[in-house]
Amino acid sequence: MTNKTLNLGVLDFKALSGDRTFSCYGNVKGNIDHAQDRVVDGAYRDSIAAHKAAGTMPKFFWMHNPWDTPVGTWTGMEEDSKGLYLEGKFANTPKGNELYELYKDGALDSFSIGYRVNDEKWNSQLGCNDLIKIDIREVSAVTFACNEESRLVDIKTRLSDGKTLTKAELRLLLESVPAGLSKRQIERITADYNPSGNTVDIKQLEEFTFFK
């Protein structure tokens, strides 16, 4: 794991009080990550405005897992000169309290966003994919911020190249959709999938969420 990857994950956790509130950065912008993506200035703004207009916030999960109960709530979100600044509160639950103590002690230090790409453009000068507008679906407490995301980017690249996915890769892609397909639906799709005979169209999967 390179320093550029780590820069997306170790993001200034700061406890605000004794009631499990804290601030952090869910994502930073401007640097090119190991997947050759770069979040550009203004990428989060439309999503933040849409959440504010709807009176919503991204979900707060542990390890991008929508099947488990959320581990807290996000109470504030804005884009500043560094990236996506967040204020949140861990839930008064066994998992929420455990995570809060681990972050305070420095045993955990990473957060990661789950998002959908609304606008992107290849930057030939820098040799990277510029993420111009992204829809922030959830922000997770994670052990390593880019681990799961890198696997998904590899799968997306394989699809774009017209290559066949394994059943395990298809399952991972389907499971990456917060509040999306049920476990039963995923089981049915993967059970019927034959890597030697079926193909998956990237255009049919462009609504899926990828992680940073």
Folded structure, characterized:
- The structure is a single chain.
- By secondary structure, the chain is α+β, with helices and mostly antiparallel strands.
- The chain folds into two domains: 143 residues, no CATH class; 49 residues, no CATH class.
- Helices cover 28% and strands 30% of the residues.
- Strands 3, 4, 7, 8 and 9 form a five-stranded mixed beta sheet that branches. A four-stranded antiparallel beta sheet has the order 1-2-6-5.
- A hairpin with a 4-residue loop joins β7 and β8.
In short:
28% of the residues lie in helices and 30% in strands. The chain is of the alpha+beta class and 212 residues long.
Q: Helix segment count? A: 6
The total tally of domains equals 2
- Molecular shape: globular
N-to-C order of helices and strands? HEEEHEEEHEEHHHE
Main sheet makeup: 5 strands, mixed
Helix content: 25-40%
- The portion of residues forming beta strands comes to 25-35%
Instruction: Give start-end ranges of low-pLDDT stretches.
Output: 1-10, 147-151
Radius of gyration: 17 Å
Number of strands: 9
What structural class should be given to the helix and strand makeup? alpha+beta
Integer average pLDDT: 77
Question: What distance separates the N and C termini?
Answer: 14 Å
List the helices and strands and how they pair.
Layout (H helix, E strand, L loop, with lengths): L2 H5 L6 E2 L5 E8 L8 E3 L5 H10 L4 E4 L9 E8 L3 E8 L3 H12 L4 E14 L4 E15 L4 H14 L6 H9 L7 H10 L17 E2 L1
Parallel strand pairs: 3-8, 4-8
Antiparallel strand pairs: 1-2, 2-6, 5-6, 7-8, 7-9
Helix pairs in contact: 5-6
